[in-house]
Amino acid sequence: MCGIGGFFACTPQSPNLAQRMLLALRQRGPDAQHVQTWDADFKPLPSNEAATHALVHTRLAIIDPRPEADQPMGNESGDVWLSYNGEVYNWQDDAQYLRQQGAVFTTRSDTEFILRAYEHWGISMLSRLRGKFALAILDIRRQQLWLATDRLGLKSVVYSSDQGNFAFASLVRALLPCLPADRRDWSAAALDAYLAHRYIPSPMTVFAHIQRLPAAHYLHFDLRTRAVDIKPYWPEGGRRPSPSNWITSLNQSIDLRTVADRPVGLFLSGGIDSTVVAAHLAQSGHRDMTAFTASFPGSSFDESLQAMETARRLQLPTQIIPIPEHIGHDFRRMVADLDEPFADPSAIPLWYLSRETVKFVKVVLSGDGGDELLGGYKRYQQHLRSAWRGDWCHLPWGVSATPYTKGWRKWQVEAGLSWRDAYALRFSGLTPGQRLFLQPDREIPAHYWRMPTQVAAAPLQQLLDIDRMNALPDYILRKADLCTMSQGLELRAPMLDYRFVEALDEVDPALRYTTPPKQLLAEACPLLRELGLLNAKKRGFNPPLKTWLNEDLADQFQGLDQRLHDLTQGQFSRVALQSLMSSQQGTRPASDEQLLQLFILDESLRQLQQLKNDEQAW
């Protein structure tokens, strides 16, 4: 688990450029930081000289923490290099085959396996990687650079290809120093997309000249022609015939994610998915693994009592992490750690949970992915009620500017979209009418999600496929990665092992999708029935927003309308913002989540504006 970056320019760059990238990535890799630089002909250079090409890496050392396994890692001849973020599993058999073919391994790291695998199989070795990754492979022999992301989107990478120059990084803030001052403008579409979704969907970022590589894709950059080519390498929707039994595959996935040279723990809530992971860990002998649980004392969202009962039944040690009642003094740091505008309220407790957990362990397992795989969210059943409409029955698209969220306008907007497109409105920030109200000079699309071109027959599967392309990688998993890695903590999600996903895709839909959801998991974990979790109301991981808005963040109201108008160069109307935020006594049109969304946008853009204007900030 690490931070990666690099640049491949047309002319020599400032000697400080790579160091500024390292500084922005340092939290992701507190154990080691390294730079490899070259001149225009790929002759290695000292790090204090102006370089044309560079790879940078910051390391969180989990497997083989010796310096020999640090990165960027090159082969013996120095013509193939790897900068890699993630963790891959179950590669030892392939490594043994490579040894038989003459490969020599000097470390126990998965990093070296990826390097040797590329030397033998080329970029097709991606099909052999089981785990999470965002990686860059520089092949000097063939004058090629490859970027790739894992199949489900647990790790991501952003890049810029502009005027022949190419650069990439784990974070937008680490890539920003690579952009010339006149190429650091906001993306107007991305700002609107943030209003629509509470995050900025791939391939956009908040900057017009920075893009995000989607999950399950690789990018090829030709160092001679400077051409960029992007292709998927895993089927849309993730469905492939799998001979594996889903329970066997799940158990193996959990077992593989316990391997580490650093202490390992578990995020345990009172819900189904993390309980399944915890139960298998206990049954397979990991009863010394500590379960970490967030607590909201006195709140209806508090699941710590249920989590403690689960841990007691499984004889797992527990560590309860109370989420602070007040967040004002940490707000700016949290927004910075989220990299660009990102407004999931549950990111706040996850940030605190990660900050305290890393004091005890360096790796945690989680139950992420269960809802997206088994239809666990309420919005699925809500949207299925109108599945009869399909993609053919809808009114002409039209939207009226309004600060309000409910009433006939909401129905009118949904009725003007196909059934699949309307689903995006169930996972939204501001409504299309509110977005048009704030941006009267813009044309407002309904959403910015990518839609699968291969449409499943079953309506529920269609919704799950949409989430697998959008909300899962760009919202749920990006949040998890940013919050944990900002604290130097590695998160592993066994339910998002692609072998398990493929095995689950072969299960009869009548067994997989039940009411209540996730009844299937009782086959793997009988404890779910004993604890009554299968029929329990889903609580989520949401904090007490009203208290934070009215107390900790109350000062944010002052001047917010003018600041957002100025920060967006007039894209957001100051008068409309005033109206949307009007009356702090409960009658304002905007909801608490929408106000938090605007507060985060304000703080994030202010920070990024400073970074793009002030080189000394780096």
What attributes characterize this protein structure?
24 helices; alpha+beta; single chain; Rossmann fold; Glutamine Phosphoribosylpyrophosphate, subunit 1, domain 1; 618 residues; 4 domains
Description:
There is one protein chain. By secondary structure, the chain is α+β, with helices and mostly antiparallel strands. Helix 6 (246-256) packs antiparallel against helix 18. The two termini are 23 Å apart.
Per the principal axes of the C-alpha atoms, what is the gross shape?
globular
Strand content: 15-25%
Portion of residues in helices? 25-40%
Strand order of the largest sheet: 3-2-4-1-10-9-11
Q: Multimeric state of these chains? A: single chain
- Overall mean pLDDT stands at 92
Structural class: alpha+beta
Look at the structure and name the CATH superfamily of the largest domain. Aminohydrolase, N-terminal nucleophile (Ntn) domain
Give me the Rg, rounded. Answer: 24 Å
What is the number of helices?
24
Short summary:
With 618 residues, the chain is an alpha+beta fold.
Which secondary structure elements does this structure contain, and how are they paired or packed?
Layout (H helix, E strand, L loop, with lengths): L1 E7 L8 H9 L6 E7 L5 E2 L7 E7 L13 E2 L5 E10 L2 H9 L9 H12 L8 E10 L4 E6 L8 E5 L2 E5 L2 H4 L12 H10 L13 E2 L4 E6 L5 E5 L13 H11 L7 E4 L4 H12 L7 E5 L8 H11 L3 E5 L8 H7 L9 H11 L5 E3 L4 H5 L3 H7 L23 H8 L3 H5 L8 H7 L20 H11 L1 H15 L4 E3 L5 H8 L3 H4 L14 H4 L14 H8 L7 H8 L6 H8 L10 H22 L5
Parallel strand pairs: 14-15, 14-17, 15-16, 17-18
Antiparallel strand pairs: 1-4, 1-10, 2-3, 2-4, 5-6, 6-7, 7-8, 8-12, 9-10, 9-11, 12-13
